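Hi P.,

Sorry for the delay on this. The queue was packed all week, but I finally got your sequence through. Input first:
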Amino acid sequence: MQEKSGSLIEWIIPLLFILCAGWIVWHLPALILDWFPPDEVAVPNLLGLHMRNDVTPGMSGPFEGQSDWIDYLTLIGIPLFFIIGMKTVRRAPMEFESWRPADRASVFIGRVTMMLIVCLTGVMIYEVFLRYVLEAPTLWANELSLWIAGFIFLCAGLYAMQQRSHIRIFLLYDVCPRWLQRTFDVISTLLIVIFAFFLVYGGYGEALDKLHRWETFGTAFDPPIPATLKPTLLIIIMLVAVQAVVNLISDWNAEPVIHTAADDIDQDELERLKAAVGDEGVGDLDVTRGSIQGKDVK
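Then the structure:
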């Protein structure tokens, strides 16, 4: 397992994946009209949305229809860059030591999520500059920020599951023998899988309906937030269930971990604090509250 992270390719591949996915999401009405056209009542509305948002109007495609060459190239780029991203992603030293193919996929999605945070920050800074410096606010920055934040929230959940950083209560778990801990792990994983199954079973009809009619947000910018986030939610929850099963398999023979209050202490941050205190002339003196109170008692 390679632990070198932060190379240039780990920035470029997620960014290319985001660009391809963003293009397809914006031009998805063209693909829907070509591949899965809705009923005759919905076609004019969907066609109108596509004509209004088409970035490359008039460009032809390999087949007859609304889609053009860039649509198909970016559609091919999504799985291509995803596979390249899985092959090139590296585990950072602070990340969990598990590196199955499903882990690689989750970590790459985590890298994409990190790049989305950069994009979100850029959109917000741009809007603040236009609004308060040039006094010319945009009509799209607020909805775009909300849209990107929705994807970040969903994708971050998958990364948190892979890293075992989701919220867990260990009070009872740590005092149990290993065989009982495994039983708890099986039960919790089974509950996650059952929850994912019923969520997908109960929500896929509505999600497909929103996607098929390309339901939008109803604002001036009018992004397709309902049409995209609802299907993404179901996809991510399925991936979370798969990752939970992979975690169960990977951790089955792992040594039990005893959780203490020291787990919340960042040793690197502690060393930096010690160095900062030393720079102020305190040096190796114990300046903690307990030490000071002990001296006052004496």
